[in-house]
Amino acid sequence: MVCHCLKELRKRIGLEDKTRQGIIDDVVWASCANAYLEQGLNIGRLAWILSDGSYDVPGCTIDRFCASGLQSIQFAVSTMMTGFGGDIMIAGGVQHMTHVPMASGSDYHPDLGSYMDLGALNMGYTAEMVARKFNITREDQDMFAYESHRKCTQAQAANKVKEVTIPIQCKALAKGAKNSNPHNMEAKYIASEHLAKAATKKGDELAEIVVARDQGVRPGTTLESLAQMPPVFMQDEAATVTAGNASQVNDAAAGVVVATEEGCNALGLKPIMKMVSFAVIGLDPAIMGIGPALAIPKVLKRAGMTKDQIDLWEINEAFASQSVYVQKTLDLPKDRLNVWGSGISIGHPLACTGARIATDITAILRDPEYAEVEYVVESMCIGHGHGAAAIWQRVR
Fold first, then answer.
1. Catalytic: 60?
2. Rounded to two decimals, what is the model's pTM?
3. Does a structural domain hold residue 350?
4. How many domains does the chain fold into?
């Protein structure tokens, strides 16, 4: 997935020719929680090589769990701002959650339980803790999840993210193949078959499909269907977190090109948006989901801005319980929050999410419906007790 992102980014900035790629100062990529197998070693460097990138462009890999994709962009921005990062960098993130399950290969220190609730290593547990501590009802969670699927379904029907989606031809199990290309977009790249073959059993039939949309959305979602879903992470009478009001297991990659004014001039391109400010904050890991409610005030203060200056809010939906808490605590306008859906409907492939949200914001800023939008906040909660937030400004 990453190599196709990198190929497409090079194509869009006119650097397909290897002899010109040396003006890219670095590739900053993110992979988290299970950085081994194909996500191990230094995926930022190896994916660049696999994409047929020139050897003279370096690459690194970073991890801030659920904010890793956003952190990779901030890493590139801040490095260039200090003068240590040249004028053009590529940043993004990837997660293979189906092939490399979350926490695979991890071995936490036996003393960790003396310093934190070890239940907080399970993100679903933290969602239950938020719901219970702050009285977020099952009905509120299901309503939030329903709205996420509704907004995402409408956005996909209008093909809102076509400019930031790379249609890929691949092989998948014929039995479970979904309508992954409703707008009949032409594939730009062909995926390697090795993972499809590894995932199949004897007798499984593969079908060749083009994937041109995020597949997590369930267009037929209703409040009635959500209400019928059983709790997943806890089974007592107070349990409220289900597969329907939580984010999903996904595989995805997303990336952006970050450049200084000099870099944009060298490429002959106009930037879409710029990062105004960035902030991270720590908190009790057991209630990590409330992170955005703490990180957003911090990033606004750091930028010298107030909430009423923000036009749209793109806050990842790890779980509906924490999303409802953040929305209510900060009193965010529902019609300006996650306007095309987010983690519950689109999916939350950990290290990819922050970069995916950033790419979607570029599409939102190019949408005539949001021509008046100037400032957008991107934020997310982060496993193990963090919150992160960034403010993006349209470049006019």
1. no
2. 0.96
3. no
4. 2
Q: What is the DSSP string of 178-221?
A: ----TT-PPPSEE--SHHHHHH--TTPPEEEEEE-S-S---TT-
Catalytic residue among 66, 152, 170, 352: 66
> Which residue in 4, 96, 149, 348 is the catalytic one?
348
191 and 255 part of one domain:
no
In a domain, 55, yes or no: yes
**The two structure tokens encoding residue 284:** 């009790």
Residue 310 pLDDT > 70: yes
Label residue 151 by pLDDT band (50, 70, 90): very high
264 among known catalytic residues: no
Domain extent for 53? 2-101+250-267
Catalytic residue selected from 3, 170, 381, 386: 381
Q: Is residue 338 in a domain?
A: no
- Could you report the per-residue pLDDT of 31-67, keeping only the tens digit for each? 987 777 777 889 999 999 999 999 999 999 999 999 9
Per residue in 88-101, pLDDT (tens digit) is 999 999 998 887 87
Mark whether 384 is an active-site residue: no
